[in-house]
């Protein structure tokens, strides 16, 4: 009877846990309008209209393989999607934003458009702010593959009145909003891309109606695959550009042939062009009126083979990746892993050399394999158009809950509450050939060390990761393999000289005490992981998840003290507590996140606003930007040791200096795009702007008083001249 009651209680607990995981919100979207080759719907960034004057929507297209739709300026053929809003309610006006397009070159024809999936962000200005919204959209678009088919779609969509909170579709819209080229007049919006000039020359080999447009551009981060899209009067047709990139990747020259010069010359005011620089995913849009080409520009084109060359050497970047991975062992994020490493060494005291070598090789293999898994995940995310970066998994609450759970179980294991028993197929890998037990366990230890190391950055690490993530799948795999080898080097050194481990004292009571001490070190790591959830979700959510971890530890302690009396039921209780912990972030409202963020922006910091940087610099100010996150330990060390101390702190708080803080604890497409403008995909990241450095000076990952002060001095060098 008691066993039946326990079973019923367990089923009831599971039912409650499952209920907590059930979704409570529906997508803020219209129904799909589907054809044989396309699907279209309207989606909303919020689930109500809110109290503002505008709402952000999106036209969400899905296209069959090999089918495409067109950009706002389609090129030599096609036409872009257009929308009529007749019959809609509470619509004052609308505007469409256009993410960066792809270029299609077919039989000499150049067209621009989108494949697979795209969201065209829509800004709807409300006639009556605060009232509900009802839309009837008549969308006309052209879809092409080997053939082209025009479609007319009618979509019906509505938003109720009320407080506007992010909808399930908000991230999808934000993802494509981050691909909309920024206005070149704003420093932040240009995402590190600058237009240095636009000149044209008449083609002497033509009938006088053809010419060449020269576009000179520069970039904070090295160019990878730059392109340029030129829009002008309809009488002028622009060809695909010939692009030459400087050896350091900082500048590029684009030569664009065109026809229609006679028509343009008859009305010089029509030579105003819209020039979109693209280096996916970065983009910047400029208005320019080209001038006649100078002798210097024409001479430069003649010397391009000597003046322009390929970008950074792959061999150099691989070397930096290995060095960055090695230095990562010394970073604060990896300190919790030292307990595992230390036990790995002392546990082999008095052991066999061959056993030690194989176990440390297994740990090294776990590290390298984990880096390959990270690389594969980043390649998949990049292919899907999502923001990517080093350590971004710490932005997701479910990952933090999983890591907190793993750390709690590791700590309980070190305290002796239970023994870890991996499946035989994993734990006994290599046994038949080597007679070494537990190689699978050592492999998993290496993998765990990698996951805990990723919140940290290190010298050379950011450079190597930025190089990889700005390129293709091969470069990402190669660089991340080199990073894994670098982080695994201490294990490989012990494997090469295993006597270092075998000379340690044999395990005894001293090791039991050491295990308990190191268990508390891991418990501290668990507290840190839970504290990050307070910033990402809410204080209440962090408290509940922390309570679940404590309850798991208490259950396992009772499991030991009662002599495993209840057996599998204890582990069932642990499983239920784990399920409840994972359910908390999805069910507890984000009531304090904004309060926490505001608390961080105290007397020193102003909110991060890229659009304000150029304005502040033009006024003669020096701007210090700090991109940080609660999960980035190196960021916190920089603040304590450098930013919050001495001359740097005094300078940042002085008149004429503005300190901006960008909090990346949670995903933010604007911050990801800002980092990408410098070729960075991880934090910490700091940059200094000023009259002497309007494009910004990127600082190293590990700051020092002298480095920051020198950058502040250099950036402020032109301030005096500007104020005179």
Distance between the termini: 91 Å
Structural class: alpha+beta
Beta fraction: 15-25%
- Into which percent range does the helicity of residues fall? 40-55%
Global outline: globular
Domain count = 4
What integer value in Å does the Rg equal? 29 Å
Biggest sheet, in brief? 6 strands, mixed
Low-confidence stretches: 1-27, 185-189, 422-437, 591-601, 720-724
Number of helical stretches of at least 4 residues? 25
Give a count of the beta strands, DSSP E runs of length 2 or more.
26
In round numbers, the mean pLDDT is 78
Brief synopsis:
This protein has 724 residues and is α+β, with helices and mostly antiparallel strands.
List keywords for this structure.
alpha+beta, 724 residues, 4 domains, Immunoglobulin-like, disordered N terminus, six-stranded mixed sheet, disordered C terminus, five-stranded antiparallel sheet, 43% helix, 25 helices, globular
Structure description:
This protein has 724 residues and is an alpha+beta fold. It has four domains: 33-177, Immunoglobulin-like (Sandwich), CATH 2.60.40.1250; 193-307, Sandwich (Immunoglobulin-like); 314-393 and 421-505, no CATH class; 601-723, 3-Layer(aba) Sandwich (Glutaredoxin), CATH 3.40.30.10. Helices cover 43% and strands 23% of the residues. The strands form six sheets. Strands 13, 14, 16, 17, 18 and 21 form a six-stranded mixed sheet that branches. Helix 6 (314-328) crosses helix 14 (473-496), helix 8 crosses helix 12 (439-453) and helix 13 packs antiparallel against helix 14 (473-496).
């Amino acid at each position: 009877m008691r066993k039946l009651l326990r079973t019923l209680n367990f089923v009831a607990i599971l039912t409650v846990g499952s209920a907590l995981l059930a979704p409570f919100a529906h997508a803020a979207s219209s129904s799909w309008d589907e054809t044989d080759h396309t699907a279209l719907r309207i989606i909303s960034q919020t689930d109500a209209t809110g109290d503002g004057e505008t709402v952000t929507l999106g036209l969400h297209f899905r296209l069959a393989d090999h089918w495409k739709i067109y950009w706002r300026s389609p090129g030599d053929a096609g036409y872009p999607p257009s929308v009529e809003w007749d019959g809609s309610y509470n619509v004052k006006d609308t505007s469409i934003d256009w993410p960066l397009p792809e270029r299609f070159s077919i039989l000499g024809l150049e067209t621009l458009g989108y494949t697979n999936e795209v969201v065209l962000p829509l800004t709807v200005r409300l006639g009556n702010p605060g009232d509900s919204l009802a839309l009837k959209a008549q969308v006309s678009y052209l879809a092409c593959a080997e053939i082209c088919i025009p479609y007319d779609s009618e979509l019906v969509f509505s938003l109720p009145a009320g407080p506007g909170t992010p909808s399930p579709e908000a991230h999808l819209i934000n993802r494509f909003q981050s691909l909309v080229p920024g206005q070149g007049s704003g420093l932040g919006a240009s995402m590190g891309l600058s237009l240095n000039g636009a000149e044209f020359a008449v083609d002497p080999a033509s009938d006088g109606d053809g010419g060449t447009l020269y576009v000179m551009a520069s970039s904070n981060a090295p160019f990878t695959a730059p392109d340029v899209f030129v829009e002008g009067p309809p009488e002028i047709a622009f060809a695909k550009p010939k692009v030459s990139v400087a050896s350091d990747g900082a500048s590029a020259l684009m030569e664009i042939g065109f026809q229609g010069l006679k028509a343009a010359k008859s009305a010089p005011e029509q030579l105003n062009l819209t020039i979109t620089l693209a280096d996916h995913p970065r983009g910047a849009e400029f208005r320019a009126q080209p001038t006649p080409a100078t002798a210097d520009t024409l001479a430069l084109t003649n010397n391009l083979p000597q003046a322009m060359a390929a970008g950074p050497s792959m061999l150099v970047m691989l070397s930096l990746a290995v060095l960055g991975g090695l230095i990562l062992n010394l970073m604060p994020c990896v300190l919790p892993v030292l307990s595992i490493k230390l036990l790995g060494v002392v546990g082999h005291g008095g052991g066999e050399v061959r056993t030690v070598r194989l176990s440390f090789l297994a740990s090294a293999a776990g590290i390298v394999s984990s880096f390959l898994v990270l690389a594969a995940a980043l390649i998949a995310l990049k292919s899907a158009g999502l923001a990517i970066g080093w350590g971004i998994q710490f932005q997701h609450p479910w990952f933090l809950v999983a890591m907190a759970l793993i750390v709690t179980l590791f700590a309980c294991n070190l305290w002796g509450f239970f023994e870890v028993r991996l499946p035989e197929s994993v734990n006994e890998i290599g046994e038949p050939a080597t007679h070494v037990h537990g190689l699978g366990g050592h492999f998993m230890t290496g993998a765990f060390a990698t996951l805990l190391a990723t919140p940290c950055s290190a010298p050379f690490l950011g450079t190597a990761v930025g190089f990889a993530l700005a390129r293709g799948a091969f470069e990402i795999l190669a660089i991340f393999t080199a990073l894994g080898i670098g982080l695994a080097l201490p294990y490989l050194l012990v494997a090469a000289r295993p006597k270092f481990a075998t000379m340690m004292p044999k395990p005894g009571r001293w090791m039991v005490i050491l295990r308990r001490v190191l268990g508390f070190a891991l418990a501290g790591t668990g507290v840190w992981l839970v504290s990050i959830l307070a910033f990402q979700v809410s204080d209440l959510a962090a408290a509940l998840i922390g309570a679940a971890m404590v309850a798991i530890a208490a259950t396992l302690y009772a499991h030991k003290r009662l002599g495993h009396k209840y057996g599998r039921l204890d582990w069932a209780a642990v499983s239920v507590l784990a399920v409840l912990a994972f359910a908390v972030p999805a069910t507890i409202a984000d009531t304090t996140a904004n309060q926490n963020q505001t608390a961080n922006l105290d007397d020193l910091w102003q909110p991060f606003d890229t659009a304000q940087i150029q304005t502040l610099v033009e006024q003669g100010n020096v701007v210090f930007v700090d991109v940080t996150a609660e999960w980035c330990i190196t960021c916190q060390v920089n603040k304590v040791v450098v930013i919050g101390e001495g001359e740097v702190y005094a300078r940042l708080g002085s008149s004429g200096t503005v300190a901006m803080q960008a909090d990346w604890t949670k995903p933010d497409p604007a911050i990801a795009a800002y980092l990408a403008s410098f070729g960075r995909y991880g934090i910490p990241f700091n940059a200094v702007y000023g009259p002497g450095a309007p494009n910004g000076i990127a600082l190293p990952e590990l700051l020092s008083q002298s480095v920051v002060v020198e950058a502040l001095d250099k950036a402020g060098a032109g301030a005096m001249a500007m104020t005179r």
